[in-house]
Every structure is written in structure tokens, then in C-alpha cells.
Amino acid sequence: MQATIVKIAVSEGSSVVKGDLLLVLDARLRVVAINPIVAELTGYAPEDGGEVRLLTLETLKKHPEDTWHPNPSNPSFLGYFRWKIAAG
């Protein structure tokens, strides 16, 4: 079995479902899982100040840093993605 992720077309997050990924590129790639609570992974190990932040998609849309806004006009927002599992 092979797993890949594929970009999905979403208008304003309306068809995002549990398990989808939201990708943001700032100084490094950040993966945010949707469950329907958004889990933001800071990218650092816990001993280096890393953490997992839980918030809603609506809260993320209001983040003080524009980098985090899941909006197609945001160049840091790479889009929504969904796992595609294929029998190999």
C-alpha cells in the first residue's frame, strides 16, 4: 500500500474534512492537521520550546500573523491536502 497527499480544491475551508492537512510555508514548512480542531505543530522538539497548539480553523483565520491565514491570496498558504491511499 502506498500513501501520498493530493491537493484538494476548497473554497474558504467549506469542504475540509477530518484528517485533511493544511500546509503553510513560513521559515519552514508547517503541517496543520484538521480534526476538526486544528493542531498546529511548531516544528521544534519539546526541549527546544516546541509545542502542539489546538485551535479552530476560524481562530487560525484571525491569527495576528498573515502568514497563517488559510487564504488563496496568501503566498505562504500552500493549500489543503488530503491523504490518498492506493493499493500497490
Description of the structure:
The chain is mainly beta and 88 residues long. The protein has one domain (2-86). The chain contains one helix and six strands. The chain has one helix at 57-61, and strands at 2-8, 21-25, 29-34, 38-41, 52-55, 77-86. It has a six-stranded antiparallel β-sheet with strand order 1-6-2-3-4-5. A hairpin with a 3-residue loop joins strand 3 (29-34) and strand 4. The radius of gyration is 13 Å and the shape is globular. The N and C termini lie close together (5 Å).
Approximately what portion of the residues adopt beta-strand conformation? 35-45%
Largest sheet, strands/sense/barrel:
6 strands, antiparallel
Q: What is the helix content?
A: under 10%
Q: Mean of residue pLDDT?
A: 77
What's the number of domains?
1
Task: Report the end-to-end length measured between terminal Cα atoms.
Answer: 5 Å
- Tertiary shape: globular
Tell me the strand order in the biggest sheet. Answer: 1-6-2-3-4-5
Give start-end ranges of low-pLDDT stretches. none
Q: Count the strands?
A: 6
Distinct helical segment count: 1
Note the main attributes of this structure.
single chain; 88 residues; mainly beta; six-stranded antiparallel beta sheet; 1 helix
List the helices and strands and how they pair.
Blueprint: E1 2-8, E2 21-25, E3 29-34, E4 38-41, E5 52-55, H1 57-61, E6 77-86
Antiparallel strand pairs: 1-6, 2-3, 2-6, 3-4, 4-5
Structure in a nutshell:
Helices cover 6% and strands 41% of the residues. With 88 residues, it is mainly beta.
